[in-house]
Sequence to fold (334 residues):
Amino acid sequence: MSIPTLFTYTVPKDFANKSIEAFLLEQGYTKSLLSALKRVHFFEEEIEHYGIEKNGQWAFTVDHLAEGDCLSVYLPPEEENSAPPYDFPLDIVYEDRDILLLNKPAGLPCHPSPGHFEKTLAGAVVFYQMQNSSASSFVCHFIHRLDLDTSGLILLAKNRLAASILNKDMKEGRIQRSYLAFCQGNPEFSLGHVPGFRRVHESEKEEFDYAFAISAPIARVEEEKMLRTVDFQKGQEALSYFNVLNYFPNNNYSLLQLQLATGRTHQIRVHLSYLSCPLLGDSLYGNEESIVSQNIGLSRQALHSYSISFTHPIGKEKMFFKRELPPDLSLLLQ
Fold:
């Protein structure tokens, strides 16, 4: 068994006379994590350890705290692999004990799936972790996902505590991501003609500093596993913001920067197709003109995860990263 990951805390005045459980829940632990801590018991350099220790002594979640107490938590590793190990080089943007930020190439799926079981980004992370640590197995927690043919930044948590905190931040909108995309035509030309497509209100610009918004619910197409569509009766709420950074009239396509307020499957692809401005190279939602991609040889959808900002789940520092367009999409700027 791999050695558990140690987290240490000094109890502040606000939690004096409160339980260890109350304190740990406030730090982002879940009930299931607290339950897992009760089963931790191991030796390290002949020293006996338990899942929760207060001032160096075994403690229970119901025990009460005093200001200044030192709380040690030993988070157990997950004893399985999230994917078959895959020897594939990772483009690491940032890494520490708790998180891993990668620049994903197009053409590599995030998770195993039918037809893509062995060669995945999850498998590449498992291989990397097993090669570079004492871990005999590894589970990577994707905080968000990218489609097979989407490139760019993707954030992972390396332990269950970081995953718990970041997943909550994602759900509550505290992780901000933006995308760069090339689409057929110019979406501005559809303004006033497509339900749900509007200019951004001034009240929204403090959080989303974009010119345009698409508010159009998305639903799965019946009897189709992957295909989604805008459906104002049956769809789930979906809201996308974007700016037109450049319009190339000679080739009739635009460069957009987008940010999502919701996280529906294929949201950008569906919303742009709904505006009759599908992504260049998108074989699922495009049309003949957009798929040909202006004869430049583009072999995938022109979508790139460009930037991400978030608060570190453990250190609590603000973090921001960006990655420019990869070479195949940079050609479109010419």
User: Anything to note?
Assistant: The two ends are 54 Å apart (CA to CA). The CA atoms of residues 177 and 305 lie 7 Å apart. The chain has a mean pLDDT of 92.
